[in-house]
Amino acid sequence: MDPFEALIGGSNPEGAELKALSAALRKQNMMGMLAQASGDRVLSPLGSRMSTEAYGQAGALGKSRLAAEKLASDERQRQAMLEANESRFAAQQERFGMQQKGVQDRFDRTKAHQFSKTLASEGLTDTVYPMQNLMQYMSSVPEGDLKGVGMLATAEQELTEQGRYVRTLFTALRNPILLARSGAAVTEAEDKRLLREFGMGTIQTEADFRKAVGLLAGTMGNTIGSLYGGIGGVDSAPAQYYIQGAGQGAITPDMFDFPTSEATTSPLAPSSSADIDAMQAELEQLNAQIGMM
User: Fold this and answer.
1) What does the pLDDT look like over 268-286, one tens digit per residue?
2) For 75-110, how does the pLDDT look when each residue is reduced to its tens digit (9 = 90+)?
3) Rounded Cα gap, residues 200 and 194, in angstroms
4) Residue 271 neighbours by CB distance under 10 Å
5) What is the pTM of this model?
6) Contact between residue 35 and residue 27 where contact means Cβ atoms under 8 Å apart
7) Using an 8 Å Cβ cutoff, are 166 and 147 in contact?
8) C-alpha angle 47/51/53, rounded to 5°?
9) How far apart, in Å, are the Cα atoms of 187 and each of 179, 191, 248, 251?
10) Contacts of 276 by beta carbon, 8 Å cutoff, 6+ apart
């Protein structure tokens, strides 16, 4: 390899500017060598100086080139390390995101399970659909024509088809209400009190019955709305898990146009390892509570 190209490039040189510079320094060196060969007292020292300067310039340029190449190499290594770190960070973020999603999903499903049990413990699971059937039937009968309620309730429930149907609907609603109020042991006094509340005693009217049913529906609606508000509202993940799991048997705030309370709590959204640990601890508490329900 041409010594000047090697000195300048430190490796195989490329580029027109480098080749032109190498040619100029090589020419200067050749002229110096010729001058030295002449033996002339003036030209010979001048030629020696020209050759020395040519080699010196080539060496200096070579060092600069090598320094620049080292800087470029160091920068490439730095970029490679940066990209590797970014890749590792992205992988860690992905793993954390998967862990976060898994914990959040387990948390939401556990809340949904607890919510389902709460609906049952509040007596709603067994009363909502009988109430819905009764209200739908009542809405189909003009006021004043509803049989099986009021002062003639007992006779009409025995003698008329409509009265027997009302008795069937009301019994389906009455039994779970009594159980929810008093547990397994329901006394005769409690049964009679419930009948009076629903306008089915001896001095009550059909209007009393319709009013009692409406009041109970409102109470159930407020309870359902409040329970949904406690898990973040009907659109929250726990609520949606419950609705999907319960299918057609799901109890929702819109069944009787019930009002829905605003969410009173927000589902915990983990954003750090500490949050995930806190959520896992709460999951254990929830599972313990569900086991005792």
Assistant:
1) 444 455 555 565 565 566 5
2) 999 999 998 898 888 888 888 778 878 888 888 898
3) 9
4) 10
5) 0.53
6) no
7) yes
8) 115
9) 10, 6, 34, 29
10) 99, 100, 103, 270
